[in-house]
Amino acid sequence: MENNLNISFTGEYSYSIDQKGRLNIPAKFRKALLPINDRTFVLTRGFDKNLLLYPVGEWQIVEEQLGNMSSIRNKHRNFVRSIVRYATYVQYDGQGRIQIPDSLIKYANIEKDIIIIGMIKKIELWAPQELSNFENNSQALDPNSFEDLANDINF
User: Fold this and answer.
1) Which residues of 111-137 are buried (b: 16+ CB within 10 A; e: fewer)?
2) C-alpha–C-alpha distance, residues 98 and 87, integer Å
3) Tally of CB atoms within 10 A around 108
4) Is the pLDDT of residue 141 over 60?
5) Per-residue model confidence as pLDDT tens digits over 88-102
6) Cα distance between residue 106 and residue 60, in whole Å
7) 3 pLDDT higher than 60
8) Which residues contact 149 (CB under 8 A, 6 or more apart)?
9) For 28, which of 62, 68, 70, 120 is 20 to 30 Å away at the CA?
10) For 25, left (φ over 0), alpha (ψ -120 to 50), or beta?
11) What is the spatial distance between Cα 119 and Cα 134, in angstroms, rounded to a whole number?
């Protein structure tokens, strides 16, 4: 997991935010964060009523890709705006906690409990009820789609 070339966030954890809106990042994920990131992540809205937590290095790749989109096309501008306007740099403290802005807590319908899911190069933060709703929704992966995608990556 821990090498100089790749970050790998895997697994699922259940945590709670404190009264000040702080979340403890799992130690396994903090250890996977390369020193170049300086204990810093970028937190923004996800696409599925969740939050995304990117190491700074991975966020720079996202920004580069977004920067390559056309600033003339309305659809591109709106997409870029919807991603970067909510992005905030968060550095975990000595106890491994990050501060989640109130606007992002509200967007993701987080009350107290949070499901933290490692997504290889980024981390997803979910309110348990939103993750349950997503998994019960028709947008979740059905067994046939799962098998097709698994065949594409040659498990």
Assistant:
1) eeebbbbbeeebbbbbbeebbeeeeee
2) 14
3) 21
4) yes
5) 999 999 999 999 999
6) 26
7) no
8) 141
9) 62
10) beta
11) 16
